Amino acid sequence: MDNFQNNGSFSGGENNSVGVIESVAQLILENPPQALAQIHGSEQYPDIEGTVAFYSDNEGVLVLTAVTGLPLPTEECGNTVHGMHIHDGESCTGNENDPFADAGAHYNPGDCPHPEHAGDLPPLFASNGSAWNAVLLNRFGVDEVIGKTIIIHQKYDDFESQPSGDSGLKIACGVIAGL
Ligand SMILES: [Cu+2]
Ligand SMILES: [Zn+2]
User: Fold this and answer.
1) Which of 25, 30, 99, 146 could be bridged to 42 by S-S, CB 3.0 to 4.6 A?
2) pLDDT (0 to 100) of residue 10
3) Does residue 8 sit in the same domain as residue 78?
4) Do 71 and 39 share a structural domain?
5) CA–CA gap between residue 26 and residue 28 (Å, rounded)
6) What mean pLDDT, rounded, does the chain reach?
7) Number of domains in the chain
8) What's the pLDDT band for 172 if we cut at 50, 70, 90?
């Protein structure tokens, strides 16, 4: 964690904002990801499809997410924000009450409260059912999350409620596979 200093640097980048963005783009374009999860919606949300890619860097893991087919809001100001986490279970299977029950709980090897679980991620903000985001995290290494699951939730994550941010039903899931 010592190498994650608050000086705006990202390895390989210039010490200015455009350089940081260029070095992130370079990391993505010039290196294959170390792991990928293919996301699929539950039976109730069959249109959801997406990919989460994990790129290892000196300063952490860059997590890139692109998802389509998220539920559209049913009213003005309806919800378009969806909690997303790495869960500690290893299967996108479940039961009639919870289609992805076997994805388990938020990945939390450090026994921390939410949202300091290693598996906690920024939520997806959907635009017309599609969402894209990227985040750099030093909470886990790629190797330790291979075989675990990514879950997208019906609701936003409040980043406060325990144990999981009150983000509601699991609507999509993918198993993280090493490459
Ligand atoms: Cu979750
Ligand atoms: Zn959490």
Assistant:
1) 99
2) 53
3) no
4) yes
5) 5
6) 91
7) 2
8) very high
How many Å lie between the centroid of ligand 2 and the Cα of residue 163?
A: 6
C-alpha 75 to ligand 2 mean position (Å): 28
- Domain with 25, as residue range(s), is 1-30
**Whether residue 171 sits in one domain with residue 91:** yes
Ligand closest to 159 (CA) is: 2
What is the 7 CA–ligand 2 centroid distance (Å)? 27
Short-list 81, 61, 86, 63, CA closest to 71 = 81
Distance from residue 173's CA to the centre of ligand 1 (Å) = 9
Please check whether residues 126 and 143 belong to one and the same domain. Answer: yes
> How close is the Cα of 130 to the center of ligand 1, in Å?
19
Query: Are 126 and 109 in contact, with CB atoms under 8 Å apart?
Result: no
